[in-house]
Amino acid sequence: MKAIRVHQFGEPGVMRLEEVAEPRPVDDQILVDVKAIGVNPVDTYVRSGVYAAKPQLPYTPGKDAAGIIEEIGPEVKHRKVGERVYLSGSLTGCYAEKLICAEARAYPLPENVDFNAGAAIGVPYGAAYYGMFYRAHVMPGETVLVHGGSGAVGLAAIQIGNAMGCRVIATAGTAEGLVLVKNQGAIAALDHTKPNYLDALDDLTCGQGVNLVVEMLANVNLENDLNVLAKYGRIVVIGSRGRVEIDPRAAMGRDAAIVGMLLFNASEKQLRQIHAALTSGLANGTYKPVINVEMPLAQAAEAHIKVMQPGAKGKIILTP
Predict the structure, then answer these.
(1) Is the N-terminal amide bond of 58 cis, ω within 30° of 0?
(2) 272 domain-assigned
(3) CB–CB of 128/76 below 8 Å?
(4) How many structural domains comprise the chain?
(5) Residue 245 counted as domain residue
(6) Are 122 and 37 in contact (CB under 8 A)?
(7) Sequence-ordered list of residues with C-beta below 8 angstroms from that of 140, at least 6 positions apart, any chain
(8) Residue environment code for 258-269, b if the CB has 16+ CB neighbours within 10 A, otherwise e
(9) Along the chain (320 residues), what's the average pLDDT of each consecutive run of 10 residues?
(10) CB-based contacts of 288, cutoff 8 Å, min separation 6
(11) pLDDT value at residue 83
């Protein structure tokens, strides 16, 4: 079978499409015939060698995919051959024609959801759900500001916030992105390339500020986020690409909280709860991943370049 392999950390060009042996499941593992693969920014951090947890070289990238179960190990109890699944986490890597994952990391893909959408669930929706519910404790009726709302995680946060009964305001940096976040249910779309764009929040919140900021680029936005929070407001940091200096007094005066998150810190119980909610939301149409572009697996390097460019408009999918 074919798979992307990384033999040294570095730029996107270190990824190579190679012929590798087909893996076999043992114990509680399942073999999945991959139909679609989700590309996430975290994949680029791992490939470049800057991520805290580095895989042993060589390795196959990727954490999200969707496909059909082809074979199961003898200890598998709840999944069966021929079942459509999406998964978040693979023992052998997702950028491949086939993969091995633990049974606990494979979730039923509803019949009304295609494989591309299934591959767009794991990291984006998992991170948004974990950050908003378990770290920031979002509540119905709250006003939520989603920075980078046109990216895969941002779009998931908009949909999750709407489903929760929140008033969601989102930012984007292109005309297409602004239209996209409005179409996904944001009550207002703010152009973060414009000076003083956050001033609009005063009218949008009747001078009260926002209760929660879902932050995708904390090194750029964190100081300004603190100044638009309501009393007892929270900021959940889902993404950051550098250091930032803030004035703690902006948080003190509001009794505000800044919380970080990493989806991979979620407990097994939390992951079960998250994906039970996501699977239900997929089935009833509450959650609908937005696919930006579909690319062949051989173009994984180009996909890694594209996923880090500004002006995101949904999810990048690789197909074997």
Answers:
(1) yes
(2) no
(3) no
(4) 2
(5) yes
(6) no
(7) 164, 165, 166
(8) beebebbebeee
(9) 98 97 97 98 94 92 98 96 97 98 97 97 97 98 97 97 97 95 97 96 96 95 96 96 91 96 94 97 96 97 94 92
(10) 117, 159
(11) 98
Query: Is there a single domain that holds both residue 174 and residue 65?
Result: no
Retrieve residue 49's tokens: 């060698």
The domain that holds 57 is classified in CATH as 3.90.180.10
- In which region does residue 106 sit, left (phi positive, over 0), alpha (psi from -120 to 50) or beta (all else)? beta
The CA distance from 221 to 224, in Å, is 6
Determine the pLDDT at residue 18. 98
Q: Which H or E run includes 212?
A: strand 210-215
Note down the domain range covering 305.
Answer: 2-121+290-319
Q: What is the pTM of this model?
A: 0.94
User: Residue 8 carries which side chain, given as an amino acid letter?
Assistant: Q
Contact between 168 and 141 under an 8 Å Cβ cutoff? The reply is no
The tokens for 127 are 């991170």
106 plus 141 within the same structural domain: no
Q: At what angle do helices 122-129 and 268-284 cross, to 10 degrees?
A: 110
CA 153 to chain centre: 4
CA 214 – CA 114 distance, rounded (Å): 28
Nearest C-alpha neighbor of 42 from the set 127, 169, 144? 127
Task: State CA 80 to chain mean position distance.
Answer: 27
Predicted pLDDT at 241: 86
Residues 6 or more apart whose CB falls under 8 angstroms from that of 26 comprise: 73, 74
Residue 284 lies in a domain: no
Do 135 and 245 lie in a common domain? yes
Indicate which CATH number applies to the domain containing 168: 3.40.50.720
Structural tokens at position 111: 């019949």
Angstrom distance (rounded) from CA 212 to CA 187: 15
**Position of tokens 């039970």?**
276
Nearest one of 183, 156, 153, 187 to 170, comparing CA atoms: 187
Residues 104 and 128 grouped into a single domain: no
